[in-house]
Structure formats: structure tokens, C-alpha cells
Amino acid sequence: MPKQNNKDNTAEGVSRRDFLRKAGTYSAASLAGTAALLSPKPARATKNVTWAEHFQKNYRLMTDEEKQEAVDRLETRYSEEFGKEVTVDDAPAMDGVLFGYALNIQKCIGCRRCVKACVAENNQSRGENQQIEWIRVLRMEKGEFTDEDRDKGGYPEDYGVQVGGNAYKPAGVVLEGQHYYEADKVPEKDAFYFPMQCMQCEKPPCVKVCPVRTTYRDPDGIVVIDYNWCIGCRMCIGACPYWARRFNWGEPELPAEEMNPKTHYLGNRPRMKGVVEKCTFCIQRTRKGRWTGCVEVCPVGARKLGNLLDPDSDVRKVLATKKVFRLRADLNTYPKFFYFMD
Amino acid sequence: MMLKRAIARFRQWLSPDLSAQNPGSEQEDAIRAARRGFFRKAALGAASVSGTAGLAKAVVDSVPQPNLEELYTKDAHAGEKELLEREYVLMSEQEKRDMVQAFIDDYSDQS
């Protein structure tokens, strides 16, 4: 009977049902084809992303089993993508540890080896177009900085580092530096260097503004990011008073042969387009009792990492015995990164 | 001989015009007509899919791609501007002691 009906319909024209069926089929096929053709070329960081990865929970809300599943998935994916055995660690914060960092600005020679080591250790994007560096070394004109200057009123007239204070401004130094200086030889005469990176604030403004709570402060004081939950709104970038966060505008460029296979879920695992990243005090190292890459590579020993809860740690000794500076102390963010002088 | 027969059968299957040479039943005609209809639909479907996709791709490609270098540089300059406003302040002995104590207290509170 239906065949007969069809024949009849064909003779008269096309029935509504047939027309709708055909239209539906063609539309669905067209949409599927369009989606297949328009989907971007499978980029390294996205080609093997599984549905499970898309739908996984916020890292903090995962059970131990779910965390293990997520880690296993990532290890498999990264190993395939980079052609080497990649491990994704999920070591939690150690008990009784609160990380602090101190940097001797008198010793720093501006060689930027820390920057290079950080890029290599933490799988940051490289290349001319989309270079990301978590550490930024500022070059500044040398100026006087003494206790006596601190109490002087007003600012000196010379351009460069300004010393002093008045009724409206706290005494201190106003930084005026250069990024990306290119010196033939460091240290340069009449210059000093000021490396900056995430200060791992005790009261981090970036955490407060995150609308999806993907960035948070771990018990050991390190502010971390779950890249899978980052929506790329850049609110944290705007909130950070130290300009320590970086955004991946494009798919990061990370050559397979340069990829560091020892990664941490909340640290140096490969990131994707549209997420924010920043220094984590090399969480993949420090949670295993190792120094950060920058501390290890510094040729003059200007960098000190330690446990703020331990009175015998390097950082506590620096705080007890040296002249210590804090950036933007007025904001009450309680940065755990200190600058000091002998 | 068998090969010739097979080729003839295949040609007949491919070309409905040949059916005239082979007088078949009405049922065979209906089958051929259905087959022809299927191929016509398949061809039409493929053409419409690729046509739509091509058009959509052309539209998407015509949208200018973001200049990544500019975006990254812009971020760097934004940071530079911010850094010009930075101040660092020498901490007094008391401030250092208070700060360390605050860190220790915070840690004790959370654990």
C-alpha cells in the first residue's frame, strides 16, 4: 500500500511527508558535512581531546578516582601527541609547608637564564608570534636607595628610579623599567635588574574574581589553575596587581622535542588556546622536594626558595636578617615573594 | 564466457537503458527505477552537502584572522603600563615579624 501511495504521489507531485523527509535528510547531511569541513585542522592540543575531558568536573570537586582517571587520560593523550612518555603528576600540597621566595636584587645580573629555564621547564609557548614568559626581567637605571633616602620628602628630579615619599605616597621606589632589553653584556653599568613573576599572594585578588573558581590557592600557598575549567574571561589578568598572568591567544607553540615530559596537572602540563597560565613555583618540582627551575639555574644565587613555616629556611633567614621589600604592600595581598638587599 | 556474462550483467545493472534490450518483468523495472532514484538522491545529496560546506567555508575564511603577535604584544604593553605604577616599600623589622606571624597564623587556621 505505501508503495502504491508513493506512486500516486509521484504522479501528482511530491507529498508533504516526502518533501519534509527529504528536506530533513539533506539539511542534516549538509550540516554534518559543513561541520566536518569547517572544523579547524586538528591541532596538537585538541585533536585527541575526549568527551570525558570536556565533561570532567572542577579539579577540586573530583574524587580521587576521578582525578586518577583524568590524569591517566591526559598521560595517554600527551604521550601520543608528543611522541614520548609524558607523566602527569597530581601530587597534593605537602603538610607543614608554606612556600615563600626571596630574590636578591643586588645580586641579579639580568642574564635572564631564569626566564629561559622557566620557559623550558614549564612548557611555555615559544616562537616569535606567541611567546609566553612567566618571568619578566625589568632593566632599570641604577639609583640610590638608602634608609636616609626613604625619609626624604618629595621625589628627586632625575629621571629614572625615584626615591622618597610624601604625605600622599608611601616612601619607596617607583619602578620605571624596560622589558625585553637587549644588552651585549650583562650586567650593564648603571643598570640593575628586577625579575618579576607571580607573587603567590596569601590573599590573591585573581582568585577572588574568577567566576568559575578554576584558580585557587592551595594549602602550601601556591595559586594554581585548573586549565580544563578556565573559560578565558581574563578577569584574573585584570585583577592581578603584579601583572603575572599570561593568556594563550592562540594554540600554544610547543615543539615535541622541546616538551618537558615531567608535568603536573595544575602546573606545567601543555595548555590550550584560550586559557590563562602563570608561575606555580614549579609545582611539579617543589612538591617533590626539588628547587624551582629558576632557583636551580641562577648563576649568582640571587634566588631563594623556602618554607615560611620553618625558621631555619633560607626565606625565613632572609626575612630575619636582610633589608626586605614588598611590591604594592598597600594592597594587602600579602605576596609571598620578597625582594631583598644584603 | 562467465566473465562476459558477468560484465553484461554489471552493465545492465549500471545502465537502465539496457533494460529495454532485456524484456523483464514489471517488478524488475520497479527495482531499477528505485535504484536509479537512490543514485539520483545520493548524487544530489552529495552535491548539496559539498556546496553548502564550500559556501560556509568561504564565508568563514573571509573573516579576518586575529593577529596573534599583536595580541601578545598588546598584553605585554598593558603589563608595562601597569608596572610603571609599581612601588616597593622597605619593610621595617616589626612589619616583617608581623607578616611572618600572619602567614603562620593563616596556615594554622586553615589546617
Architecture overview:
The complex is a heterodimer of chains A (342) and B (111). Helices cover 28% and strands 16% of the residues of chain A. With 342 residues, chain A is an alpha+beta fold. With 111 residues, chain B is mostly helical. In chain B, 76% of the residues lie in helices and 4% in strands. Chain B has helices at residues 2-14, 26-62, 68-83, 93-110, and one strand spanning 87-90. Chain B is elongated, with a radius of gyration of 39 Å. Chain B starts with a helix and ends with a helix. At the A-B interface, helix 2, strand 5, strand 9, helix 11 and strand 13 of A face helix 2, helix 3, strand 1 and helix 4 of B. Strand 13 of chain A pairs antiparallel with strand 1 of chain B.
> What global shape of chain A is seen?
elongated
* Arrangement of strands in the largest sheet of chain A: 12-2-14-13
Order of helices and strands of chain A: HHHHEEHEHEEEHEEHEEEHHEHEE
Rg of chain B, rounded, reads 39 Å
Tell me about the largest β-sheet of chain A. 4 strands, mixed
Could you give the count of β-strands of chain A?
Answer: 14
Secondary structure tally, helices of chain A: 11
Please report which band the strand proportion of chain A falls in: under 5%, 5-15%, 15-25%, 25-35%, 35-45% or over 45%. Answer: 15-25%
General shape of chain B:
elongated
Annotation field: number of helices of chain B: 4
Largest sheet of chain B: none
Number of strands of chain B: 1
- Specify which chain pair forms the largest interface: A-B, 62 and 42 residues
Mean pLDDT of chain A comes to 83
